[in-house]
Specification:
Layout lengths: L2 H28 L5 H20 L7 H20 L7 H4 L4 H17 L3 H12 L4 H8 L3 H22 E5 L5 E6 L8
Antiparallel strand pairs: 1-2
């Protein structure tokens, strides 16, 4: 395969990624800035940076992570340009990267796990937090392996429902959580 053909394929995949992520990025930006017009300007800035990267033959391997990182940086740049002596909004002053986002969510999830009914909580803690295999969890709890699998699956579903009632998760096309925003609906404190 020639270099030109490979570049054309990469450019096509980048264009497809832009079309797939454009609305998600806009929603993410809109949640961080006051006006729709500002969000559109920032989104256009991200597109210009993507176009420039393509023209310089730089095509990131993980386009979704790259797009979110560039978007976050563009939001920070927007606030820096907008203010003379105004501090960045607290939510943006320390923008979490994917790893920090997952750590923050993990810290929030332990109380949610502990709030689950005992029949789901204990198997979930043993398997997901302590890292035990299903057989070991079954032996510890005096249950069959299928019963353990069923309780863990139901516990995960209950945990997911609780998490989604508390937070809006932003994911890339690979399904990885790249950011989140806590909802102010009172569910998170229960």
């Amino acid at each position: 395969m020639t270099h030109d053909l490979m570049m054309k394929q990469k450019i096509t995949s980048v264009e497809a990624a832009w079309l797939a992520y454009r609305q998600q990025l806009f929603s993410f930006i809109r949640s961080k800035v006051e006006t729709t017009e500002d969000a559109e300007d920032i989104l256009n800035d991200v597109f210009v940076k993507l176009t420039k990267a393509i023209n310089e033959h730089f095509i990131p391997d993980n386009i979704s992570s790259w797009l979110y990182r560039v978007t976050k940086n563009s939001i920070v740049d927007y606030y820096r340009a907008k203010r003379q002596f105004e501090p960045l909004p607290e939510a943006l002053s320390a923008i979490p990267e994917t790893e920090n986002t997952l750590k923050q969510l993990s810290n929030c999830m332990l109380p949610m796990i502990q709030a689950l009914p005992e029949r789901y909580r204990h198997p979930l803690i043993l398997s997901e937090i302590e890292g035990k295999k299903y057989n070991a969890v079954a032996a510890d709890l005096g249950l069959s392996v299928p019963a353990v699998k069923s309780r863990i699956l139901r516990g995960r579903k209950k945990l997911q429902q609780r998490l989604l009632s508390c937070c809006t998760l932003y994911r890339n096309n690979a399904g990885e959580t790249v950011d989140y925003e806590q909802k102010n609906n009172g569910f998170c404190d229960k």
